[in-house]
Amino acid sequence: MRATLVFGVVLALGACGGFDEAEVARRGAAALMPFKTELKQTLIGALKEGPDAAIDACAVKAPEIARRASHDGVKVGRASKKLRNPGNQAMPWVEPFLDGIDAPRVVDLGDGRAGYLEPIRVEALCTTCHGAAIGEPIAGRIKERYPLDQAVGYAEGDFRGVFWVELDDVR
Ligand code: HEC
């Protein structure tokens, strides 16, 4: 009886968030889809052109792609605990998830806003620039441009960080 009561109260509080979690997850995933696809295609294309183009693709094009994928109360981006660019510092609501998540998450940001997160896993392709042994000339170019680089030493399958989405007006 008591357990049922407690469970009922938790459910009621959950509902007080005032939005439909499944709908937020659906909108979040839809917002990330073009960002992830374009990022990957740009990176693969740039890697064929050589190390400078590839590093530029990450440094210059990634933020541009994020801006383009953000619109009408929807903002997307990437964050990590081990940053290459200190400018990619996570928003406070994202920070608790940077130690690792296994599946997408929905977060209540209050005021009718919600966050959505997906884990970023390291693929073989990523270790070219984020692995334990980065070849030249890429290693040198990265050191030059990012003297504070921490985003190295990753292996395929490692948790690298998160894709995040902020959604306004989820009421
Ligand atoms: C050609 C080299 C290169 C490759 C390949 C590469 N990255 Fe990066 N990555 C960079 C650079 C350079 C930055 C810094 C971008 C900036 O200045 O915002 C970066 C930044 C990031 C960030 C943002 C957080 C931070 O550390 O600043 C994430 C997340 C990330 N990379 C994940 C990946 C993943 C996942 C892959 C594989 C799909 C990948 N990277 C492949 C060079 C690369």
What do these coordinates show?
The two termini are 33 Å apart. Helices cover 44% and strands 18% of the residues. The protein has a 4-stranded antiparallel sheet with strand order 1-4-3-2. It has 171 residues and is an alpha+beta fold. The protein is built from 5 helices and 4 strands. β2 and β3 form a beta hairpin. The site of heme C has 24 residues, from α2, α3, α4 and β4.
Can you give keywords for this protein?
elongated, alpha+beta, binds heme C, 171 residues, disordered N terminus, 4-stranded antiparallel β-sheet, 4 strands
Structure in a nutshell:
The chain has about 170 residues and is of the alpha+beta class.
Write the layout of secondary structure elements.
Layout: H1 2-16, H2 21-49, H3 51-69, E1 74-79, E2 105-110, E3 113-121, H4 127-130, H5 138-145, E4 159-167
Antiparallel strand pairs: 1-4, 2-3, 3-4
The structure holds heme C.
Heme C binds at residues 43, 47, 54-55, 58-59, 62, 78, 80, 83-85, 88, 120, 122-123, 125-126, 128-130, 151, 160-161.
